[in-house]
Write a structure and sequence with these properties.
three-stranded antiparallel beta sheet, alpha+beta, two-stranded antiparallel sheet
Length: 125
């Protein structure tokens, strides 16, 4: 019985950790390591955000969709969940909320980098 309990606990812990890891991954684009969503789409940070707080809503969020955190998602080293004022939750890395860009059409596109001088690819150093 003790062996089954320990095995079940290990399975639950690895499953919980995978919830976070399934939301993003690392990629190498042009020699730079960046974060992408699970589909390989580039993630971006927004200079007008505050640590742990998104300031991108309405038209901004339509063009820069937040990286949504699913119910029950678990944080991991460097990764946190931000509560949005619209009641949804999104992922942040190092306190910086993360977004995709509507004009990126395929994995590896980085057309949002530098837009209006305030959008930047999320570097995975």
């Amino acid at each position: 019985m003790k062996t089954i309990t320990i095995g079940l606990a290990a399975l639950l812990l690895s499953t919980a950790a995978s919830f976070a890891a399934d939301a993003w991954k690392k990629a190498d684009v042009g020699g730079t390591k960046i974060f992408t969503d699970a589909k390989g789409m580039t993630l971006y940070t927004y200079d007008k955000d505050e640590k742990g707080k998104s300031n991108c809503y309405d038209k901004c969020a339509a063009n820069w969709p937040p990286l949504k955190a699913e119910a029950g998602a678990k944080t991991s080293e460097g990764w946190t969940i931000v509560d949005r004022t619209d009641g949804t939750k999104m992922w942040a890395y190092d306190g910086k909320p993360l977004y995709t860009f509507i004009k990126d059409k395929k994995a590896g596109d980085v057309s949002g980098d530098g837009v209006a001088g305030v959008w930047h690819t999320a570097k995975a150093d």
